[in-house]
Amino acid sequence: MGAGHGHHGSVTNAAQRHRGRLWGAFGLLTALMLVEAATAFATGSLALLSDAGHMFTDVLGIGMALAAITATRRADTDPQRTFGLYRLEVLAALANAVLLGGVAVYVLIEAVRRFGQPPEVLAGPMLAVALLGLLANLAAFALLRGGAQVSINLRGAYLEVLGDLLGSLGVIAAALIIALTDWWWVDPLVAVAIGLFILPRTWRLGRAAVRILVQAAPEHLQVTAVHDRLAAVPGVAEVHDLHVWTLTSGMEVASAHLTIAPGADLGEVLAAARTALHEDFQIDHATLQIEPGASPGSCSAVEW
To answer: Which residues belong to any copy of the Cation efflux protein transmembrane domain (predicted)?
Structure first.
């Protein structure tokens, strides 16, 4: 006997409430990315080009977030997709991390090449576009901040915009230094700083996405603690075949077999186990199989 309990769409519905803000950030950053890229080639600024490349991944990441949210909504009507398409946003976050890492590596390689003979950079247009970038990133940062707490994909876009915000400040500083001192070395130096800032954040985002895709237990949950808490439920004699994983960001899932003691009430045990998972671990989707202790062989071993 078993029971499932939960609300599949709570996190994704929360992400969907931010669709309007996502579209606003998407349009704003797309326009600025094109301006930054054109200006970077016109001025010869690697720092500005690195910021435009980073902004491209912002735009791509937000676009994938929007696509994942839309696909998830459509999947709700498909009976074959019993878990919807929640994993799409995790795949999008992983692709985003890979692309962002590639941009960072390219910038670092190009910066090292330029240290030998830094080219002349036009500081005026570079400064003007960097100031526009700062304003656009501040607006996008405000638009995405709320959604960053409910979705790994939105968190990826939020982190990229945060990186872009700091990158814009670096480009502004480089443009001012070049305008005042003609010290061309500052352009590749700022590009290196932006690249080094991006890489660790990219690693953390990619690692979080991979953990979800391989169905590892959430880092903030100890499986032994979940086991012991279920074992402590009145009427439970044994807990086995316990699995805890993340379906998508903020949506933890569990399954377990509970052997109940003779005379224990099945309904009471099931309700108490659900309550324990919800209150102690915020697990709202749990599939629990109840096995009477007086029925030997009721649970056959499963080889994984």
So the answer is: 25-214
Token representation of residue 22: 């996502």
* Residue 95 one-letter amino acid: A
pLDDT value of position 71? 66
According to DSSP, residue 182 is labeled -
| Homologous superfamily assigned to 223-292 | Cation efflux protein, cytoplasmic domain (3.30.70.1350)
CA angle 75, 78, 82 (to 5 degrees): 85
Task: State the pTM of this model.
Answer: 0.70
Token pair belonging to 23: 């579209």
Tokens of 299: 């649970």
Contact 246, 281 (CB under 8 A): no
72 burial type by CB count under 10 A (0-12 exposed, 13-18 middle, 19+ buried): buried
- Cβ–Cβ under 8 Å, residues 245 and 133: no
How many CB atoms lie under 10 A from the CB of residue 23?
Answer: 13
Instruction: Match 């876009």 to its residue by tokens.
Output: 157
CA pair distance 301, 188, nearest whole angstrom: 60
What is the separation of C-alpha 300 from the centre of its chain, rounded to a whole number of angstroms? 38
Does pLDDT of 12 surpass 60? no
Beta strand ranges found along 42-100 (DSSP E) = none
For range 189-211, the mean pLDDT: 84
Predicted pLDDT of residue 8: 42
If one looks up domain 2-213 in CATH, what number appears? 1.20.1510.10
**Residue 78 phi, psi (nearest 5):** -100, 110
